[in-house]
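Recall that a protein's primary structure is simply its ordered list of amino acids. Everything else, from secondary elements to tertiary packing, is in principle encoded there. The following example makes that idea concrete.
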Amino acid sequence: THIVSSIGPLTPPLTIDHSTSSPIPSCSTTALCYLPTRFQRMVEFYHTEIPIAYRDLGLGDLLVVQGFRWAETTKLLVIPTCPFVRRYLAKNNTNCDCVVENENEGL
């Protein structure tokens, strides 16, 4: 499996290349989903998708870490509404400067 970070304005922060040597089938999708908000410099992380067969391998954590790196690099604020992302932040006692609880807090 090849993991590639791509950083740019509102581009996916992480791509996983399912090559022939990958243990993850090419029909599987891993994703950290985000939406723009009413404000140009703010996004919402609303869902993390990991195929059941590949859960508990750290892929979700990797997606979240790369997602926050992308947000910090592109100077975006993040509203974490995804339960997995919220658990990750609490479990790892992570304090990212880019995290806000709602749009009003980010203004």
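Helices lie at 59-73, 83-91. The chain has a mean pLDDT of 82.
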